[in-house]
Design a protein that fits this description.
The complex is a heterodimer of chains A (166) and B (414).
Chain A (H helix, E strand, L loop, with lengths): L1 H33 L3 H5 L3 E4 L9 E5 L2 E7 L11 E3 L2 E7 L10 E3 L2 E3 L6 E2 L5 E3 L11 E4 L2 E4 L4 H11 L1
Antiparallel strand pairs in A: 1-11, 2-3, 3-5, 4-5, 6-7, 7-8, 8-9, 10-11
Chain B lengths: L9 H9 L1 H10 L2 E3 L8 H20 L9 H12 L3 H28 L8 H23 L4 H13 L7 H9 L6 H31 L13 H9 L8 E3 H26 L29 H9 L9 H14 L4 H4 L12 H22 L4 H32 L1
Antiparallel strand pairs in B: 1-2
The chains are: A alpha+beta (166), B mainly alpha (414).
Chain lengths: 166, 414
């Protein structure tokens, strides 16, 4: 009798183990289906020519479907540790999405103001008012002479990312 | 196998195979409903009907809708609205029903709260109902996104961004949900799948569960009286219909439901034909543009209260980021109703007007929800921000105080 019970238990556990492996494999497959496609992951490079920028007037570029703010700082704007220095010029490079809920702030008199929930960011991308929990995010980039390529993590990016983490 | 004899009618033939007579008794003619209930109990039938309207109108819209970011906007605003005969009608029927269904859900929920219908014995009715509410919200949101207008796009942007608040995996989770780095084609097609298949199927399953949860503890009544349904049903069946406190669902009680349904449908079709625009935000008639945010983003009216709780906390408190407090408050607002049966510490089931403090609590909740809804639509600046803040705090406090209030009511009653 006890032998029989053990045998049934064993069959039961075996079935449960097979079902668990199959279930986990299915979940992994389903998770993968929802991941971004290779074409989406690959299409992620944008080159920006820095020489075309005017000091004090930020331009918006598109990278991975997101707006990217690039501001060449004018002399009256404060220096920041997140400034990208190319030659003698200082630049703010940031993903142009409010870090609160992802709206696009507009440039108004030296600050980026988000209309949705009133968040404000200064010329260095630092949040100065409202609900945004952190400065504007830094997109990965690489400096090549007078251009930056968004999508690659160059040494200049690493340096600024470090100061942002600190 | 059971014994099968030659059937004399189609009904008999089916009854031998499907036992439809018993099924009919259990579900309809001997499903007992208390006599002492008012028109507010008709909301269930109204909701079932509105859901039916949504499904049927949705099927017709689906025949012309194209879930592709290049085609979606025109397939709705040109093909369905201009070309398809009566396409405009099906869109308005669908859009208005999607809005009105939430009005009825809120009345249904508040009725349950007022009469204590979530209390001991009926917790599963309440929980399955809350699951339905959450699934309806997900269905409403996923459907709102499909026309791919500006408000659709930015609603999707904001809502998917909320998942970024999840600790550690937040950012990766947002990309995973969207299937892209921002809200894009992959997002639209998967939300289309959710809206037209997965969520409706889940809703149907939950409606089945919700009906079933009602069958054992039976429906509550206006005086929250504890009725012995078996004894009362016995009286009714023995011919003592006048003294019995219950009546059968079919064909007696349903006639009252249908009368309320008639009034509701007049109101509903009045909206469909003359005021459909209340369910159509003007901003959504601009095609989605990922590079321009509309000046002022707000959700549909039925999400405004929880949206205002989310953004009500606009400054850091005790070193915690305003963003995180908002998210926690938002999660609280959407989760707290689930545990309502256990926050109510009063051991007796009574309607609110027989529980003095709870009565005040109930109406304060209603007023607070209205304040949150109104201010959720206004720009969050100056005084508005502060009204939103205090209304959000009041909402949380109401639920913190509920166990104390209900216990006090019980004590005073002695």
């Amino acid at each position: 009798m006890s032998n029989n019970t053990n045998r049934r238990d064993f069959i039961g556990y075996s079935f449960a183990a097979v079902a668990a492996v199959g279930g986990a494999a299915s979940l992994y497959g389903m998770k993968q289906v929802w991941d971004p496609l290779p074409s989406v992951l690959a299409g992620g490079f944008t080159t920006i020519d820095l020489t075309a920028l005017k000091a004090g007037e930020p331009e918006t570029f598109t990278w991975r479907g997101k707006p990217i703010f690039v501001l060449k700082k004018s002399s009256d704007m404060d220096d920041s540790t997140r400034d990208l220095i190319v030659g003698s010029d200082r630049y703010t490079v940031a993903i142009g999405l409010c870090t609160h809920l992802g709206c696009i702030p507009a440039w108004k008199k030296g600050t980026w103001k988000c209309a949705c929930h009133g968040g404000e960011f200064d010329a260095s991308g630092h949040q100065t008012f409202g609900p945004p929990p952190r400065p504007l995010d830094l997109p990965p980039f690489e400096v090549k002479e007078n251009t930056i390529v968004l999508g690659n993590e160059g040494p200049e990016y690493q340096k600024i990312a470090q100061t942002l983490k600190a | 196998m059971a014994q099968f004899e030659k059937a004399n009618s189609v009904g008999e033939w089916l009854d031998q195979r499907l036992n439809i007579k018993t099924f009919n008794k259990v579900m309809m003619t001997e499903y007992w409903i208390p006599k002492d209930i008012n028109f507010l109990w008709a909301m269930g039938v109204l909701l079932a009907t509105t859901f039916g309207i949504l499904i049927i109108s949705g099927l017709f819209l689906m025949m012309y809708y194209k879930p592709d970011i290049k085609l979606a906007f025109d397939s709705v605003n040109y093909t369905i609205m201009q070309e398809v005969a009566f396409g405009w009608l099906f869109r308005h029927i669908h859009g208005v029903a999607a809005s009105v269904v939430f009005l009825i859900i809120y009345i249904h929920m508040l009725t349950g709260i007022y009469y204590g219908s979530y209390k001991q014995g009926r917790e599963m009715i309440w929980i399955s109902g809350m699951l339905l509410f959450v699934t309806f919200s997900a269905a409403g949101f996923s459907g709102y996104m499909l026309p791919w207008g500006q408000m659709s796009y930015w609603a999707a942007m904001v809502i998917t961004n909320l998942f970024g608040g999840v600790p550690v995996i937040g950012d990766a989770l947002v990309v995973w949900i969207r299937g892209d780095f921002n809200v894009a084609d992959a997002t639209l097609t998967r939300f289309f799948m959710l809206h037209v298949f997965l969520l409706p199927i889940v809703i149907m399953g939950l409606i089945g569960l919700h009906f079933y949860t009602l069958r054992i503890p039976h429906v509550n009544n206006q005086s929250s009286e504890d009725i012995d349904f078996d004894a009362e049903a016995e009286k009714y069946l023995s011919g003592n219909k006048k003294e019995s406190k219950v009546i059968p669902f079919w064909p007696i009680f349903i006639s009252k439901d249908l009368a309320v349904l008639g009034v509701f449908l007049i109101f509903y079709f009045y909206l469909v034909f003359f005021h459909y625009s209340f369910a159509m935000d003007p901003v959504n008639f601009d095609p989605a543009d990922p590079m321009v945010t509309p000046a002022h983003i707000y959700p549909e009216w039925y999400f405004l209260w929880s949206y205002e709780v989310l953004r009500g906390f606009f400054f850091d408190i005790a070193g915690i980021k305003a963003f995180d407090i908002g998210l926690i408050a938002f999660a609280f607002a959407n989760g707290i109703f689930f545990v309502l049966p256990w926050l109510d510490r009063d051991s007796k089931i009574l309607p609110a007007h027989k529980r003095p403090l709870f009565f005040i609590w109930f109406w304060l909740l209603v007023v607070d929800l209205i304040v949150l809804t109104v201010y959720g639509k206004l720009p969050p600046t100056g005084t508005n921000a502060w009204v939103g803040f205090f209304a959000a705090v009041a909402f949380i406090l109401l639920f913190v105080l509920l166990p104390v209030i209900t216990k006090l009511d019980q004590k005073r009653r002695g």
